[in-house]
Every structure is written in C-alpha cells, then in structure tokens.
Amino acid sequence: MNEVLKAIRERRSIRKFRPEMPEREAIDTILEAGLYAPSGMNRQPVVTIAFTDKEQRDRLAELNRQIGGWPEGFDPFYGAPLVIAVLADRSSPTYICDGSLVMQNLMLAAHSLGLGSIWIHRAKEEFATPEYQELISSLGLTGDWEGIGHCAIGYYDGELPRAAERKPNRIFYI
After folding, report:
1. How far, rounded to the nearest angstrom, does the alpha carbon of residue 43 sit from its chain's CA centroid?
2. Phi, psi at residue 170, to the nearest 5°?
3. pTM for the predicted model, two decimal places
4. Among the CATH numbers 3.40.50.720, 1.10.10.10, 3.40.1190.20, 3.40.109.10, which is that of 3-154?
C-alpha cells in the first residue's frame, strides 16, 4: 500500500506518552510538514509554535486544564513532551480550514516518524488570554491570530490503538 495512504489509515490519537522528547531533527521534519499544508489561495496564514521547554509546556497544559474544567493534576496533553500550537490569522477567510490542514500534516508526519500525536482543543481560548497575546507579540507576529489547536507529540507508551470500525453510508456518488 502507498505509504501516505498507509499512514492515513494507521494514525491514531495517542493518550499516553513516554516523557522523552523527540529528537530535534524529527521535530524540524514535523514542523516543515506543516508548512506544506494547502491553504486558500496559497495565503499561508498559519504559524506554529513548538513548546519544547518543559516549564512552558506545563504552563500551557495548566491553562488548558483550567479552561477544560478538569481536576487539578490532570494533564490535557496526556504527558506528551512536545506540544505544537497552531495559530492562524483571522484576516484570511479560510483560516480555520488552513489551520486544520496544518494540524493534519503535523499528525501524519509524526506518525510517519514513529511518534504518536493527538489534537487537543482550547488553543482558541488560551491564545486569547493576555499572557499568550504577549507571547504572540514577543515572537514578532502582527495580525489577528487565533489558536486552532495543539498537536501533542511524543513516543507512545504502549501499543498503537486499533482503528474503530468506519461508520457505513458515508460515501456517496452522484
């Protein structure tokens, strides 16, 4: 089977990660894959922020936990050592779709390198806070940025989950 189609079929959301950080080369490869996601009229309105510093990653996780309403001590990133935040500029009419395509590329790239990933929400709420608006500014980004999602990445702890059965009657030809 074609490697791309194989990755699409086999990639699963991982909810238990080992603590070791993926190699820098793998992280760079995953981030580059995000750059090649399609975007409306090739506007490329999406940026990624790789949280590789444990303290910064844990601060982001704590805010995400609070927004999600989970009990203290819960890690909404399931222990993944790497979290990539995907943001898109709202001035682009296709920004949500464009950011979603970047997320998909990140997850498929991670899988192809033997890493696990999961899409975690609440980036919109996090990056609307003054703390993360300041972070956006400190990176030299101008514009109206909205968090699309987080791609939590790491080595999975345990077996790769099996695919659920696909629901019937979801493809139509006209």
Report:
1. 20
2. -120, 0
3. 0.96
4. 3.40.109.10
